[in-house]
């Protein structure tokens, strides 16, 4: 074959848009991606629930020179501040030369992930086993959460107001917990049911003990009593304290490299820590920015972004209003000139489930950071649908900085769908588009991403912040 391109090949390159995928990446880019992802895995392992992600973020931010935001203080270009919302969401800002006069640049990811929460009255005993009743959080395929090791994370607030942090099941020498499943031998009825009926929310009961309390004078619920006495000894809590608690069960396994080539990462909670971490790192690394850059890590996305720590709360708006006041501009004006990358994952094309996707408009593992102009469902309901103008600006920013990127719709039209925080940001009169990392097995206890895609997400947020 000749090295020379013929006229047709030249025309093809000029006119057609044919993504090259990972083949286009250099050895240096692979190396940089692998190195970046070591930090990401540490963040992921430390942050299964949002409070832990906030704690990790505060520590990292302080090390990078960020200080707690004080609305009464004056800040100048180059200052770095953070503001925590009820320990479950956090905004980090790098003050720009123009402050927020020309708007802020926002990168917003969520740090909550699908999981199993305890009900207010969780602990019970049945047939000499102690179990927890649960209420799942976010969109789960419930069967995936059976017969895997689970660990308990969260907080309990006691009657005297003191808060106890709970973390049980992460260490190798620690016990963990499990939702049981029915053996195949006796599952002839179960396996013929539709998946939504074969395993229901009320079946997500978690096994937490089986030995009776010793030396008891009565015979009633001794296994439950024993569990409660262990919890009391370790955390000083009583059964009533479950009523004022947030306790979550998450998979107890750590993030692992996937594939003989170690090109991917399997782990719990990529959605959406895989965008939160690159957005955090972009804020820590951004310097000499023109417009104030804000990374906001929000909560409650998986259950609709409601509540005072979710994207529908006014927390971020008030933060920007405070910054605008310093710059002598009206908050709503700063808001209206702001631009945002809604940093969330999209579903990577899966050859095993090819019929769920439309390949020409799907994102692929190793295809780079994925832009979703809109999400939603059936006829573009419940989405913000970014303008061609804003899409054009983001596309050109990525091309100019040689960042590998791809377009992605969430699956085949009319098959289902989903949303992100983009529409709530758009409602604040901000230009916004979804940009994030493609994920395989999204919302499963063990999700998969590509290392180069994670790195491209970081590069995208960083260059977005550094724009003139
Ligand atoms: Mn998400
Ligand atoms: Mn999700």
Mean pLDDT: 96
| Residue windows where pLDDT falls under 50 for at least 5 positions | none
Distance between the termini: 44 Å
The largest sheet is:
9 strands, mixed
Strand order of the largest sheet: 1-2-3-14-4-15-21-17-19
* Count of alpha/pi helices: 11
Bound molecules: manganese (II) ion
Strand content: 15-25%
Shape: globular
- Number of DSSP strand runs: 23
How much is the radius of gyration in Å? 24 Å
Name the helicity range.
Answer: 25-40%
- From the helix content, strand content and strand pairing, which structural class follows? alpha/beta
Give a quick summary of the entry:
By secondary structure, the chain is α/β, with parallel strands linked by helices. The chain is 28% helix and 24% strand.
Notes on the structure:
With 468 residues, the protein is an alpha/beta fold. Helix content is 28%, strand content 24%. The chain has helices at 7-15, 27-46, 50-63, 195-198, 222-235, 270-285, 315-326, 331-336, 388-400, 422-426, 451-466; strands at residues 67-68, 80-85, 89-94, 105-110, 115-126, 129-137, 150-157, 163-168, 178-179, 206-209, 245-251, 256-258, 264-267, 293-298, 339-342, 346-347, 369-372, 376-377, 405-407, 417-418, 431-436, 438-439, 447-450. The chain has a nine-stranded mixed sheet with strand order 1-2-3-14-4-15-21-17-19, with helices on both faces. The mean pLDDT is 96. The chain binds manganese (II) ion (MN) (2 copies). Residues 271, 302, 443 line the site of one manganese (II) ion (MN). Residues 271, 302, 443 line the site of one manganese (II) ion.
